[in-house]
Amino acid sequence: MKIFHLNYPNHMKPEEHLGPLSMALGFFDGVHKGHQKVIGEAMDRARELNAKSAVMTFDPHPSLVLGGRKEEVFYITPLQQKMEILQDMGVDVCFIVRFTSDFAQLEPEEFIRHFVEGLDVVHATAGFDFSFGSKGRGNMELMEQSSAGRYGVSVISKQADGTEKISSTRIRGHLKAGEIEEVRRLSGRPFQISGTVVNGDKRGRTIGFPTANVQPDLGTFVPAGGVYAVRLHVQGEVHDGVCNVGYKPTFNDPSLKQLSIEVHIFDFDKDIYGERVAVDWHKRIRDEQKFSGIDELKAQIEKDKQETIRYFAE
Asked: Which residues contact 195 (CB under 8 A, 6 or more apart)?
């Protein structure tokens, strides 16, 4: 997949001619099943029209530029992970448009002129609620009206399971609640975070359960505190493990709110400090809890480990 970074008003076209494109437009945080429907439609149209499939996304999140969010913005799929998912889907081209104040003030018609027609788009696809241009006044109805037959337009209706829309907001809610299996169902894949293995307090070694202390990438959405069955990707290999997200209440002063992500990797004894890793979250086992002593903690970790082994054996 070819990736191009575009910026209004100075750099609105890639350096090379790409030919006709069938393009999906959206922020696509999470690349969940609803997003996959939009992108899949663009890919289908690309095959029909003998064009390349393309995705246009935006960085950073518009709310960081426009305001309107009181809480810090955390991505379900940070940009690099989003690119990897799109590549795995088979998308030919991705445009990452820098979301700036100037870009946010662009008139909807100018957005179409520069970022649809100007990129030789022969078919544009987006969700029913996609908006663009100044104050979000542009919508897919305007996109279709403006096409005048120069390009086709597909609008994907609300994707729901039952009566509830599949959305990034809904997935964030499940992550906050630790409902990791619901996230996997709505996304079609396990939730994943990337990060770096850093030095911890090494207490796990002393009780027979050494852990990799994962420092997540900035802006990563970390699931609710608790214990999870996970798979960890490191040095080109994948290992089963059990992960604790929380504040280690058995050892730490509860007033010291330093969140940790610690993965006990099964049958693994390599030193991986400094390594880049990815963690796939498969099942929530239990809440984090405080134990009366080391023996009780060790017994519970062993139970968690056995439950995880059974889960992955199913």
From this structure: 214, 215, 216, 217, 220, 261, 276, 277, 279
Largest interatomic CA distance in the chain:
73
Does 119 reside within a domain?
yes
Same domain, 43 and 114: yes
**150 and 19, same structural domain?**
yes
What element of type H or E holds 230? strand 226-234
pTM value > 0.70? yes
Total of domains in the chain: 2
**Among the listed residues 217, 214, 244, the one whose alpha carbon sits nearest the alpha carbon of residue 228:** 244
Q: Is the residue at 264 inside a domain?
A: yes
Burial class (CB within 10 angstroms; exposed 0-12, middle 13-18, buried 19+) of 205 = exposed
Say how far apart CA 39 and CA 195 lie, in whole Å: 27
- Chunked into runs of 10 residues, the chain (314 residues) has average pLDDT values of 95 93 97 97 98 96 70 83 97 97 94 96 97 93 93 95 90 95 96 91 58 90 94 96 79 62 91 94 90 77 92 91
- Say which CATH number the domain at 258 has: 2.40.30.30
Strand pairing report for 93-98 and 52-59:
parallel
Q: Which of 191, 175, 180 is nearest to 283 (CA)?
A: 180
Enclosing domain of residue 209 = 183-313
Assess whether 42 and 127 both reside in one domain.
Answer: yes
Is residue 172 in some structural domain? no
Q: Are strands 237-246 and 212-216 parallel, antiparallel or unpaired?
A: unpaired
* Nearest residue to 125 via CA among 50, 193, 42, 228: 42
